[in-house]
Design brief:
The chain is mainly α. It is 81% helix and 0% strand. Helix 7 (210-247) runs antiparallel to helix 8 and helix 8 packs antiparallel against helix 9 (301-334). Bound molecules: coenzyme A.
Length: 339
Amino acid sequence: MSENLKNILEEWKGLEEEYQQLQETHRMYLKKLDELSKLQSNCSSSISRQRKRLNEISQLVKKSSKGSSEEDAKILDEIKEKIKIRPNAFFQMEAFLPKKNGLYLSLVLGNVNVTLFNKQSKFAYKDEYEKFKLCLTVILLLFSFICYFFVSYRFSDVILNFLLVWYYCTLTIRESILITNGSRIKGWWVFHHYISAVLSGVMLTWPEGNLYHIFRNQFLAYSLYQSFVQCLQCYYQSGCLYRLRALGERHNMDLTVEGFQSWMWKGLTFLLPFLFFGHFWQLFNGLSLFRMAQLPECKEWQVSVCGLCFLILFAGNFFTTVAVVRQKLKTRNQKPKSL
Ligand code: COA
């Protein structure tokens, strides 16, 4: 046997051994996957059973509370307290279990599983979402800047609006996936992105004319400002994400509800004036468009639809931001020592 062949045979033997090992590992992996999916369906059905029984027992507790002795009432109160916190525990558990997609995700993605099964991948997905937002926001900022100061073609406006539609649609999908994975994004922010997509879509169809040109600069300046504020917001939110992760305080996708750190208040108080200014700019845009819609030469339906979108955005953003700040103030006052 030649020396060359000997080498090949030795190499092949080593490869064969490694292949056998790989086969064994893969077999174990499939077995564990099978066990995992059984455990997942066990947990899911156990949670729905628990929910049902919890409902029944809370009805019973309610009935028994009436006319019970002081001692019994104390025990019933303890049970009531425990019942109250259970749904939250189920929510936390479900963030790590596969579940059926909601209507929107089923329509867009079909019935594919989007649950991420460990904290690291949840964090990585959220992190990537923040980076995507920041990257697109910077592109939008540059584009609005160019359209505002340098080029005044309808074609470039169309590209900007198309980019906005695509951006907001993508955000709604990513946010639905985040919500499936336990994120506490308020429904309004997702709805905000639907409305913004509609607004940019309508702007896209607004025919060229005198009225379009009157509103164009105001809209571009607003887009420029909004992108700037969104950059600040992304910076604040990824700061929260990194800091809390480093402190090891994160629970699932929960950024700030538990243990909102005092340094974050600095970020928030810095951000809030910019946010509120942006909200009033939206109100101003809405009112300007409604005034424009009353002009006799105004024939375009886009004027009042855009005006309505801006007013909805203003109301939703303003009241949700006020509610978020109030809620944060309340938790801060409740836990002054932890800050
Ligand atoms: N878009 C997307 N997600 C948002 C969001 C927004 N505007 N505001 C909050 N969230 C997410 C957070 O990332 C967090 O997610 P997580 O559970 O996955 O960690 C969750 O919602 C809960 O966050 P919350 O504690 O309520 O708020 P926050 O500290 O992250 O942010 C604000 C607070 C006020 C800075 C933020 O809500 C905000 O920027 N709002 C204003 C947006 C706006 O008005 N834009 C228009 C500007 S002109």
